[in-house]
Amino acid sequence: MLTFENVSQHYGSFRALNGISLHAKEGELVVLLGANGAGKSTIFLTASGLLRATGGSIRFRNQELAGLKASQVVERGVVLCPEGRKLFPQMSVLKNLMLGAYVHRGDKAGNQRKLQEVFELFPILAERREQTAGSLSGGQQQMVAIGRALMGRPQALLLDEPSLGLAPLVVKQVFEVIQRINRAGTTVLLAEQNAYAALKIASRAYVIESGRIVMEGDRDTLLGNDTIRKAYIGA
Ligand code: ATP
Fold this sequence. Notes:
single chain; alpha/beta; Rossmann fold; 2 domains; 6-stranded mixed sheet; 4-stranded antiparallel sheet; 38% helix; globular; P-loop_NTPase; ABC_transporter-like_CS; ATP-binding
């Protein structure tokens, strides 16, 4: 179980998160909806130790994450796939993937097994493993970003806008992969602008506005909610 309790975050004096409380149960796929600037990325950066929470508690399987370094958060099983992919474009696909395994660098056999799993999930990356990441299509680069996160061996995976800027067919593939990862047992917290597709594969969702949670509910309740449909689904 991943739990945020009254988490706050500031950029200077600007309060980006204002008492965020949310949770994802073991094996759940939970979606964070919200307009640009609502605070979704800040939630992820704070959970993954890239920003230090200015208040509150973030726990995974009863261990406190707030205050840990990013590498320690990965060691505890919580891994971020960041918005905008953040690949090293001049480095090969393989090297980008292996960066995700940095905290497990002592376990070469385990990393090879994990790499095979990533290649089974994304066969195209096996074919292109020696190519530079920057030479791949947007969708393939997103696969590298997800694959790199998987190399960190997540028990909870934080996915920030994985479908951003991708063509509809590729978006569909990305959502199918996320669903497969989740069905194989990984808890997923997914921030998405693509609200309909995200809700379809989610069990629950939270709606964030100006750093606060303004609504939460299970998939069907939110899919049927007029405000949600108008604001996020455009139907
Ligand atoms: P997006 O999908 O556009 O990334 P988001 O919901 O992820 O939106 P955040 O990136 O978390 O939103 O931003 C939350 C708020 O914090 C916004 O008002 C944003 O302008 C502000 N913010 C984000 N990063 C910084 C920063 N480094 N310095 C100052 N303010 C920031």
